[in-house]
Amino acid sequence: MSVLDLARPELRAMQPYSSARMEASGGAILLNANESAWAPAGEAGRGCNRYPDPQPAALLRALAALYGVREEQLLVGRGSDEAIDLLVRAFCRAGRDAIAIQPPTFGMYSVCARIQDAGIVEVPLAADFTVDADALLAALTPAVKLVFVCTPNNPTGQPVPRATIERLARELAGRALLVVDEAYVEFADGGSVAGLIDTYDNLAVLRTLSKAWALAGARIGTLLAHAEVIALLRKIIPPYPLPLPCVTAALEGLSAQGQAEAAEHIRIVRAERARMTPALAALPGVREVLPSQANFLAVRFDDAGAAYQRLFAAGIVVRDVRRYPNLGDALRITIGTPAENARVLDVLNGDRA
Ligand SMILES: *Cc1c(COP(=O)(O)O)cnc(C)c1O
C-alpha cells in the first residue's frame, strides 16, 4: 500500500502542465517563454523579466538543511496556506471526503475544506486545550483523509506531545494523512517532528518563514512529507509559485547573519513570553493567561471587549478570539518588542496616556 492510495486517483493519473522553464533550462538567448527581453524599471524588479525557477535549487537546499530532510521531501509554496490548500485538494474528493480538526484552532484548515467542498469532522480540544487522541481516533470516519494537528496550537499556544503525534501517525497509517502544523515550533521547547517523516509515510509537517523568520511578507511556506506526496503536489501547484524577490529575501533571511538574527529574536520572544505570562495574569480584570509555547498569549478577561477597546484606543491592535469555542472571554496578544509589551501592560493597567 502506498500513501498515495489515499489521494484522489484522477490526480495521480493526471499529466501536469509543463512550463517553459521545466522543459528546458540553461541557454543564453531565451526565446521560449514569451517573456520581455528587457529588464523592468527599478531595482526591486531586477531579474523579474524572466519567469522564476518553480522550486529554486538554492532555496530547496537551504530549507532542507534547516529542517533536516532531503530536498525530495520538500514543497515550497506561498506560505503554509498554499500547502494546506494543495493537501486538501489532492486528498479530498469534493462532496465525499473530509478533514478532521480540533477546535479552537487555526482557521485555514476548515476554509480550505469548504472551498473544496470537503467535510469537516470537529473533535474539540480537551478543557485544558490538549489534544484528546482517543476522542480524535474514535471520531474518524472512513471519509476523513487528512487529520490536522497544530502544535503549538494557534490560538491557544499549547504544544502536542511528540508521543501523541507518533501514536496518531501509527494509528492513521493506511487511513489518513496526519498533517502537523509547526508554524510556531521555533518558539517551543519540544522541537520538530520532521525527523519522523522517514518512519511514517502518512506524516506531513508544515513549516513557515512567516513567524520566527520575520518573512510573513515574502510568503514562503514549506511542506515536508514523503517524496511521493511531494511529487503529487508538485503536479498540482501552479507553475511559478515563488516570486523572485521573495526567494531572494528568503535566501538572505536564511544566511548565517539571518540565522543569527532569528535566533536572537526567538530568544527575546521566549524571555518576554516568560515575563508577560505572570505580568498579564496579575493585572486587574485578567482571569487567566494560557501557558504558551508560541509567540503569542491567549488571555482571558472579565470583559475582553472592553480590554480590546482600551488597547485599540491606545493604538495597540490585538486579536479578538472570542468567536472560538471555549475562548469566549479571550484575546490573543502577540509578543512584540520589550517596549511594545511594556506598553500593553501599562495600558491594561489603566494608563491611557
Ligand atoms: C501563521 C500560521 C501559519 C503560517 O501561514 P503562512 O501561510 O506560512 O504565512 C500556518 N499555520 C498556523 C497555525 C499559523 O498560525
Automatic annotation (TrEMBL):
<feature type="domain" description="Aminotransferase class I/classII large">
    <location>
        <begin position="43"/>
        <end position="348"/>
    </location>
</feature>
<feature type="modified residue" description="N6-(pyridoxal phosphate)lysine">
    <location>
        <position position="211"/>
    </location>
</feature>
<dbReference type="InterPro" id="IPR015421">
    <property type="entry name" value="PyrdxlP-dep_Trfase_major"/>
</dbReference>
<comment type="similarity">
    <text>Belongs to the class-II pyridoxal-phosphate-dependent aminotransferase family. Histidinol-phosphate aminotransferase subfamily.</text>
</comment>
<keyword id="KW-0032">Aminotransferase</keyword>
<dbReference type="InterPro" id="IPR005861">
    <property type="entry name" value="HisP_aminotrans"/>
</dbReference>
<keyword id="KW-0028">Amino-acid biosynthesis</keyword>
<dbReference type="InterPro" id="IPR015424">
    <property type="entry name" value="PyrdxlP-dep_Trfase"/>
</dbReference>
<dbReference type="GO" id="GO:0000105">
    <property type="term" value="P:L-histidine biosynthetic process"/>
</dbReference>
<dbReference type="InterPro" id="IPR015422">
    <property type="entry name" value="PyrdxlP-dep_Trfase_small"/>
</dbReference>
<protein>
    <recommendedName>
        <fullName>Histidinol-phosphate aminotransferase</fullName>
        <ecNumber>2.6.1.9</ecNumber>
    </recommendedName>
</protein>
<comment type="pathway">
    <text>Amino-acid biosynthesis; L-histidine biosynthesis; L-histidine from 5-phospho-alpha-D-ribose 1-diphosphate: step 7/9.</text>
</comment>
<dbReference type="InterPro" id="IPR004839">
    <property type="entry name" value="Aminotransferase_I/II_large"/>
</dbReference>
<keyword id="KW-0368">Histidine biosynthesis</keyword>
<dbReference type="Pfam" id="PF00155">
    <property type="entry name" value="Aminotran_1_2"/>
</dbReference>
<keyword id="KW-0808">Transferase</keyword>
<comment type="subunit">
    <text>Homodimer.</text>
</comment>
<dbReference type="InterPro" id="IPR001917">
    <property type="entry name" value="Aminotrans_II_pyridoxalP_BS"/>
</dbReference>
<keyword id="KW-0663">Pyridoxal phosphate</keyword>
<dbReference type="GO" id="GO:0030170">
    <property type="term" value="F:pyridoxal phosphate binding"/>
</dbReference>
<dbReference type="GO" id="GO:0004400">
    <property type="term" value="F:histidinol-phosphate transaminase activity"/>
</dbReference>
